[in-house]
């Protein structure tokens, strides 16, 4: 392969196909509003998961480049924080407009690098875009408070930006997660250094190009690349005041601990094991479709994938019917018409998932539907695993305890609603859960008693829209979930409060001695 250095991002045109790219273009850093070729000596090859053809190589940005990104953001902060809120709002309007215009281009880069279907990639972009659109309402979202605390005396509170903030993103939502961060961090007056996933930085690079086009001044958004080395730099760089992380528990718990120890604010969304409780009184057809879509869509590589079924009472008899629906899904290259799910991200990930399926078999579970060894005819070299359903699963099994992050649904049977709640609450993770029932009273008990942070009632993936916040809990968030992403708490995360107490008295002071006691 001959890699070409790109001169501008316009040079990088993602083909909306899985054809082999003759001369792939290097991924660049985005520093000070310019795409700059990296001087890296270490590069990470990026392959199309559907074909394993090379798409680009991603630099491990050098120390000089990482420092340059923070220098740029630090310099930009002084003037950026002084721009008016209305000015920043205008830029955000333009940015959202450009994202809409480039929707398909963003989605194509996601399908090519991440593997999800084009239709699903468009959803990835939209969910991020909605955060940016909601951020346009910042003028009414960031107001402080004022109280007359005594005669002639008042206290006012303001929300001020933190300075330079950083974001570390996962591979599974290459547009949405950067857009959980960029709009809110920048419209509140911060400047940023962002590291996309080294497995699929393309969408983020397009977002950088669009931000520059929208009129963002140089330095407000910088993008650097790499893996743990870049993250360690961000964790230890004192000029970075806050870190947003989304990804696995392994990386996230480390990042939370080291970032917090270094005095930074950290928001960190981690792994999941989302359960659906199915009651015999539910709308069966709706439940089976919803579960099949939420378990196998995006090849199960969503943190809110419905990966665990809790069949209550007689509903266990429905699993063969669910398997029929799963079989009906089309696994194919993401650009192919009618594709329902694409490949998993890497050969390593495929192997890890297959190993978990094998472990379930060894531990005595039943592989009711086995996706191992399946592949679409046109793409024999991709990282394929078809929809897989494992039944007779017990809580001690590895396939239940670990996040699988693939198109694998594990099914447990319980006799009663109470047992279902007990099982779900005993799980360490608490990202999301769903119940399928027609009974309002049962749903009411479920929402009150279940511990997961995001609850769906006849809704399989209850991710809140951006006027709310992403409210996972337990092991699915670091730091007890105090700093959830987007919504009000997203704005709180990216701002610090300042309170001003003032005394304006019309008459002259009469006493000549200072008062030294706390006022009583
Ligand atoms: P990952 O943890 O492997 O990678 C995430 C980021 O961390 C990447 O940018 C990566 O470069 C960096 N990283 C990886 N290992 C590191 C290390 N040892 N030290 C420092 N940095 C490191 O996660 P992933 O595979 O990209 O994403 C999948 C995971 O993300 C799943 O566990 C999924 O549940 C989770 N996720 C959670 C949410 C949520 O909101 N809860 C959303 C999306 C994904």
From TrEMBL:
What does the record give under GO molecular function? methylmalonate-semialdehyde dehydrogenase (acylating, NAD) activity
One Pfam family hit: Aldedh
Fetch the InterPro entries from UniProt: Ald_DH/histidinol_DH, Ald_DH_C, Ald_DH_CS_CYS, Ald_DH_N, Aldehyde_DH_dom, MeMal-semiAld_DH
Give the enzyme's main class according to its UniProt record, as a single word. oxidoreductase
* CDD domains in UniProt: ALDH_F6_MMSDH
GO BP term (any one): thymine catabolic process
- Keywords on record: NAD, Oxidoreductase
Domain Aldehyde dehydrogenase stretches: 35-500
Q: Which domain of life is it from?
A: Eukaryota
Q: What is this enzyme's EC?
A: 1.2.1.27
Q: Does this entry carry the keyword NAD?
A: yes
Q: GO CC annotation: what is one? A: mitochondrion
Family per similarity comment: Belongs to the aldehyde dehydrogenase family.
Which PANTHER family does the annotation name? MALONATE-SEMIALDEHYDE DEHYDROGENASE, METHYLMALONATE-SEMIALDEHYDE DEHYDROGENASE [ACYLATING], MITOCHONDRIAL
Protein name, per record: methylmalonate-semialdehyde dehydrogenase (CoA acylating)
